[in-house]
């Protein structure tokens, strides 16, 4: 299978945008030499939720429903339900193919099938970090939890699958996108959950913090329950790659332990590829498949329970 996308090769397209936008070197480059494109699929800045676009209203409405419904009790219930892993058995690659039908409504930058995004991210990061094979595989699997949108996985609504994530069980930080809608979340008024620490202790470690439910936490549970040998940095990337309040705004650092602090740099590196590889790219799936199959064999058992 070849995914054909109707534009230039990634590098060329990026180079052209750099010239057109006359960006300074320091703004357009970072760790590993990855060059940021300056506009998304729709010709707007990345993560520009204010942009005048037909999608804007949909995205805002998405966060309104998300923020009202992601409560501590809801997350607890979902974690208990989904960590049973009693729905289906399939390999990582089979899951990648399954995701082909899924489009993420919360994402203002992307309207293409997910498998393209997975391979764009993985191939971009592989180019800049050729020796970190765990990072390539992490990129490939980071969004597989979006299968939650499909009927065999319970067909969860978009607000319970995608979008930015944040801790529940303590105060919602003001840096979270569309923070104003939390006022209608029952936890917002609950004194057990609405203080800086809430149910947590200082430096308790992010692993002990309940995150709003979605594809990130689900894929993290899948990797853990199936005893993946990915390093802790890879697992951290999977669980926190949508946690923008932390890796963009620096909120909730008081809940991190030493290991989290060490791994955070990988989440930040990864995030740039996750975001900026969402461009028109051409990936020859059959050509790269054997490489990723070898990584799957190395870091995951043959069949996974989901
Ligand atoms: Fe994601
Ligand atoms: Fe992603």
Automatic annotation (TrEMBL):
Which keywords, in A-to-Z order, does the entry hold? Ascorbate biosynthesis, Cytoplasm, Iron, Metal-binding, Oxidoreductase
Residues that bind Fe cation, according to the entry?
117, 142-143, 215, 241, 274
Q: Where in the cell is the protein located?
A: Cytoplasm
Its cofactor is: Fe cation
A biological process (GO) of this protein is:
inositol catabolic process
The annotated pathway is: Polyol metabolism; myo-inositol degradation into D-glucuronate; D-glucuronate from myo-inositol: step 1/1
The record describes how the cofactor is bound as:
Binds 2 iron ions per subunit.
Please give the Gene Ontology molecular function terms for this protein: inositol oxygenase activity; iron ion binding
Cellular component, GO, one term = cytoplasm
Please name the InterPro entries in this protein's record: Inositol_oxygenase
- Which Pfam families did the record assign? MIOX (PF05153)
Q: EC number(s) of the enzyme?
A: 1.13.99.1
Q: For substrate, which residues are the binding ones?
A: 47, 104-106, 146, 163-164, 241-242
Q: Which SUPFAM superfamilies match?
A: HD-domain/PDEase-like (SSF109604)
Please state which protein family the record places this protein in.
Belongs to the myo-inositol oxygenase family.
What protein is this chain from?
Inositol oxygenase
Q: Which organism is it from?
A: Olea europaea subsp. europaea
